Every structure is written in structure tokens, then in C-alpha cells.
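Problem 3 from the worked examples.
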Amino acid sequence: MRSPLDTCISALSWAEQRDYAGFGKGDALNSPILRKIAGRNRFLRSSFVFLLSRSPINLRPILAIEAQQNPKALALFARTYLNIQALTDGDAWTPKAVSLLGSLLELSGVSSYSGHCWGAEHPRGDPSLGAEAYFPGTVVTCEVGEAFLDAFQRTHDEEYLEVAKSATEFIRRDLTVIERDDSGLCLSYVPSHSWKVINSNAKSAALMARTGSITLDESLLEDARANMKWVIGKQTRSGAWFYADPPEASHVSHDNYHTGFILSSLYEYLQSNEDRDVLNAYKTGLEFYENHLFMPDGAPKWRYNRAYPLDIKGAAQGILNFSLASELFPEKLEVAERIAIWMIDNMWTPEGRFFYQKGRFLTKKYTLMRWCQSWSCFALSVLAGAQRCAKNAADRVSESRGDR
């Protein structure tokens, strides 16, 4: 197996050479041509986004779409640099992370909202979810918030913690409170909306819990507990989650990477809260995830009942989730390594990039910076860290037995 760390560093170099700018899965409306045709027509906007994301060839240059930096990608690359810094000698990696965090501050929507917040670099197909680029939402804001918390815990710079705290203010003040009752707290996906998306609530609960545990803010922790209670209450008997609530509001059923989002959020939440109900949900969710969303060779299925397309994001999310899970369940490290072997063997190119999807008959060999490169880099850096921890644990056992 090619070293996850070496592969990660090569992939980072590929991204850095392009100033972390690239195309995005949902960036069809960054085309002046398609944007003019679609206007605010929801059907046309959504259709263009759908069709371009599924095109077997990359039509973006033809449609005058320019490569841009995506806030979530910048956050994932920053987190990757911080992870590598912890695994290597020298101090070259942290300054790269710091530079990306500075770029993220410039993209924040804090001047228009209650706290720091971020959105994708393109308009959405549904104008109610963000008719303009960078309209803020839960998922992107939480991913960026996690990057600033990583930076705080690595550098102890209070300014990074203040940014994360500010992001939780956006979550608590600007998102719509859709439910707050005995079932828990459900927050909207974006401001002024009522769509109950499960993975975005899992992410907000995780960020609030992590930030609250550092700052000892009990009100923030209480909101995190209520938010996570709602999420685990939506788990099916089989251990799965739909995309939205109620299930008929979901445009997908039990798919790979959204399930992965929820599981990584449950893991992050458990780092700050000893909650037996959340731990049980995590265990049963992880079992469903492994048994129904991956093939025996490590290939990621698209959905629990559909294999293709084999998507790079599903592979990267699997590596991330099982690497994290190995802290609680050491045997899951082998699962993460198996997925990594498959991903590097099947979706890695010699010039240092990962490509998009393998279909049953067609392969999309172009690279989307956030979707392909940033998630793969971050996942491999987490795997390298998990392997280091496993080796250190084995060495300690060996020393205690006098095997040296």
C-alpha cells in the first residue's frame, strides 16, 4: 500500500500549485451562460446543476466557469496541514494552515449575520437555499468552524477560538428553529428556511459541543445536547438515517457520504460528551455504514441499495470515519486501510490528483477541488494519525511485556 501520508502530501502539492482553486460539483450557475438562461427559475437552475454534476466530461471550461476557491475546501486543506504538522518534523505546515484560515476570514459573512459564517462559492439550484454565491449555511460554517478549533488546539491562539465561538452564534441566532420540544432541537439548513436536514443538524451539534466543552459554556452545551437528541431520534431501526425529515422529504434514501457526515459528527460530539444514547446510535450507525455502504474490497457504494457510481467522496468519508472509529474500536483501522488501498489503486493519478467517479461503464476522470482533492487529503491525514496512534499503542504493549 502506498503510504497515506506520502499520498496526502503529493495531493496537497497538486492543490497548492493551483492556489487551491478548482471546479465544484454544484457550480453550474457560475456559468454566465447558464445563469442568464435560468434566471430565478427553480426548475432550470436545478436542472443545470444536476446535469453538469453528472456529465461524464468536464464541460465547465466550455461554459465559461472559472476555477475558484471553495471555503469548505480551504478549511479541509487547513485541517490537513495541521494534522501533518503533528506527524512530521519541522514547522513548515502550520504557516500554510494559518494562511488558509486568513483567506477564510476574508470570505466570512460576519458583517451581515450574528457571527462568522460561510457558504459555497456558487449559487444553488434552489434559490431559496442561496440564490447568490457564498450565501451561508450550516454545513460549510461547521466545517470551517472545526478548522478554527483545530488551529486553536494546536497553536493556543485565542483568536481562533473566538472565530469558532462566533460561528456558533450564527448557528444559534440566524438559523431557523424548526423544532424545540421533547424530541430535541432542529435547526434549518440555511437561514430563513424550514428544511429539516439531518446531517446538517448533526454537524451543528458537534460544533456546539466541541466549542462549548472548550469554553465551558453550559448554554451552548445544552443546545448541542438538544440538537443531537433530535438527530439520533431520527435513526431507523436498522441504524440508518434518511437525508431529511420526514423521510418523504428526502431526495435520497440511505446514501454513503451523508451517512458518513452524521457518523463523523457523532464521533466529534462524543469527544466532548459522555452520552450513552449517542454512543449506541454511533455503534449501530457504524455497523450499518460498514455492512451496507461499502463493498468487501473497500469500494464505496453510492447508496445502500445501489453500488454505482463509485464516488471519491464516499471513499474519503469512509477512510475518515473508520480511522476516527478506530480510537474506540481498534479493529476499524483495518477497514479504513482497506478503503484507502481501494481509493489509491482506483482513483489516484500519478500527477497527484484524485478523480471524481467510476461508473459501471463510464469514468469521470476530472478532478473537483473540494469534492475530490480536499476530502481525500483530509481523510488520508486522519488515517496517518490513526496509524501512528495504533503503532504507539502496540509499542507500549511490547515494552510493558519486555519484548524489546
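Problem 4, a separate protein:
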Amino acid sequence: MINVERAKKSDRVLKALTGLNVVEFENLTLIFQEQLNKERVKVRKKKEMIRNEGGGRTHTLQGSESKLMFILFYMKCYPTYDLAGLLFDVDRAQPFRWVKEFLHILEKSLGKTLSLPKRQIRSLKEFFELFPEVKEVIIDGTERPIQRPKNKEKQKEHYSGKKKKHTKKNIVVATKKKRILILTPTEPGKEHDYTILKKTKIPNKIPEQIRVFVDLGFKGIQNDYDLNIRIPHKKPRTKELTKTQKKINKAISRVRVKVENTLSGIKRYRCITDVCRTKLDELSDKFMFLASGLWNYHLSMK
């Protein structure tokens, strides 16, 4: 069993276990505790027979700190259920039940801190209301590996020609301050970045005065949408870029590197970087969603 109090004595150790420092962990624990209590009330209302407070078997994870530690540790280190069961002295089936339960509580908690990215924007008006201070956005795609599907059709659907492996993919819309504004639903790795972006219709909801930085994976966006696009010049096959074009590309790269820092922040959690073992699409999508929320929460605490 992980000793929470000992881990909290060192920022370095706690970051290695949860991805958060001591102050961030303690603040999130208070909100997590509140959400746990609300869920208990809901459960008690649904049941005809109500067990008295303190009755029944003692929970292996004592207190909200231990429960929050478990779910953050699972996302950060991504152990197998067998290993997690051994570390927390329970049967291997119990960590799976805890993951589903505590991910839901963590999502509610991060929602309270306003850290979760939006999954979709419905209108220009909504964009202005949600992000009034934003002057520029950076759009990029990110892929994460999955186990090779046994089904032949799913193999084709998830095979990424770019990564040469089976993957899942998301598009993120971030700011220069590295905050994730929008995270698209998870798609199979075969889908092209620009195809996913068009499917979500996000470009239609971005105001014209907002500068939009993209890479060459979104080539054609400047022709398809009436947006303030900043996209690098592509080097011709038989020619070199001019000095002016190279200067423009360098200026765009200086801004676009912020989204790479953002993605590396999300990928502190090994449930995103390691080969995804779950066959549940909803669960793999939630890992990405909550890892993004935890990154935004980390930024808000600076």
C-alpha cells in the first residue's frame, strides 16, 4: 500500500506518483472529497435498504486522499490490474472497479475547477463567451498507441501510416499559454488530422479575428475556411524556400512549439503514452480527456 503521508513530504515523489505537486494534490483532494460525498448521497437514495454510516466491511482505501492517490497513480504509472491489486492488497478485479468509479469522481472534481477542455463548440457566440481573452489558437493532432486489434477491419481502421502502428487520435486546440481549450472525441489512427477537424466543424466556430496556427498536416484549411490562418510554407521538390519564407516558417514554429509543450504535459501520464490495454473505447477516451484536464488544472495552480 502506498503511504500517502510519506509521499506528500516530497514534491518530487508525489509528482512521480500522481503528476501533481503537494499543493495541487491537497487542493484537488478537498474537491474530490466533496464529490465523493455527493455520490454517496445519490447511491443511498437509490437503495431501499440503507446501511448505517460506518457499517459493513472497511474500505481498503481509507479516506479521499487514498482514493485520489489511487486513481492518479493508476493514470500516471499505468500498472496492470494484477500489479495494482498486488500493490493495494486486493484482488485484481477490484482495481478495475475502482478505476471506473474514481475516474467519474475525478471528472466531476476537475469540472468544478473549470479545468476540463470542451469537447465541441456549437457557435461563434459560444466561443466568445467561453474564451473572451483568446487572441490566437494552435491546432494540432496527437496519437497514442493501442494493442493490435484481432479483427481485420479494426486493424485497417486503426493503423496509422504515419506512426507505422495501431493508434487512436485526437485533435487539440490550445493557446500560447499552453492551455487546452478544445479536445475532439477519440478517433481511429487511420483518420487524417484534417479530416477529423472538418468532421467536428470546429473551424466554423472560430472567429475570423483569431489567429489560427497549424502545421502542414492541415494543408488546404486556408482555402476551405475564411480564417486568419498561419501555416508554414512547404518546400518545393526542386527548389529551395526563399529567405522570407524561411523567416515566416521560423516565426510560426516559435508559436507552434507551445502546443508541443502542451502535448508533452498531457503525456506525463503513462495511460496516454504506453500502449493502451483497455478494449473499452469510452475508457480510453476518458483517459485522454482527464489527462488534458489535469494539465489545465496544473497550469491554473501556477
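Solution to problem 4. The mean pLDDT is 90. Residues 124-277 form a domain with the Nucleotidyltransferase; domain 5 fold (CATH 3.30.420).
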